[in-house]
Sequence to fold (337 residues):
Amino acid sequence: MPSRQTVYFTGPRRIEVREEALPAPATGRMLVKTHLSAISTGTEMLVYRGQFPHGMAVDESIPALKKKFAYPLCYGYAAVGHVAELGKGVSEDWLGRAVFSFQPHTSHFYASPETVTLLPAGFSLEAAAFLPNTETAVNLAQDGAPILGENVLVFGQGVIGLLTAALLAEFPLESLVTVDPIACRRSASLALGVTASLDPAAAGFKDRLSALLPLGADLSYELSGAPSALNEAIAATRFSGRVVIGSWYGEKPVQVELGGAFHRSRVRLLSSQVSSLAPELAGRWDKSRRFETAWRALERIRPEKWITHRFPCERAAEAYALLDESPSETIQVLLDY
Fold:
C-alpha cells in the first residue's frame, strides 16, 4: 500500500515526520497530492513551543481541525496541491485540478469537493498558500473599519501584519504606521507605502511614534503575538479610539494595564478572529463572499515576494527550529512535498 508523509508535533520543540498508509479515497472523497503548505508563525509556533491551551479545540469551524490541542498533533491550515485520485461519486472534472484546503502539513490528504477551493485561473500555488492569512487580514480590516482620514497603527509585521497593512494602505488614511523588531519585515512594510515602520526596541521609539502620531492613533492593531505590545497599542491610541486584537497569545501570560489613562480614555478593545464574521456584517456577508474578497486582494498584493525559505517535508524540524531560533531571517516559510 502506498504511504504519505505527515508532520507531527510530538512535544515542545519536537517534530516527527511519520509515514502513514494511503488507502484509496472513500466514496464521495478525493485524494489530493500536496505540493506545498505554508507555516503559520503565530499559532503553529505556540504549538511548537507547547504554549497552546491544552484540551481546547484546534478550530471547530474547519472539519480537518476539530481535534483537541494535545500532543501528538498534526497541524497546519494552508495546503495547496492537485487532485490525484477520485472516490466513487466524485465528478471526473475534479481530477488534476489545483486546489487549496485547510489541512495539516502532509504530502497527501483526503477531502470532499465542498471542503476544497479551486484556484482561480492565473494563480500560482505559492500565492494560494497565503489565502487563509489573507482572509484573516480581510477580517481584521473589516473589524477595524478604518475611516477616511484616520491615523492607523499596526503592531506586528509578520505575514498577517503585512497583509493587513497592505489592505489598509489602500484606504485614504491620513497616516499608516507599522511596528516590528525585525528589519526585513519593516523593509517589506515600507515597500507597501506605509508612512513609517518603526523598531520598538530602538532608542527613541516612543518619541518617534509620538512625533508621527501626536494625538495618538484613531485605530490600532495588535498583531505581533507579543503580550507586551498590547499595552503599547492601548497607550498609543487616542481618546475614543479602537484597538483590534488579532494576536492569539495561547498560554503566554498577558498583563493588561487598564489603570491610569485607560480608565478615562473610552478606548474600545475589539477581539478579531477569522472563524466568524462580525454580527453587524452577517446580514450582507458570509464566508464565501469574504473568500472572494481575499482572492482579489491576493491578486493585488502578490505576497509570494515574502517567501524567504522553503524546506522539503522531511526537513520540517529544521524549518521550525529556524522560526524559533532565528525569526529575524524569516517572513514566510513553506514546506515542499
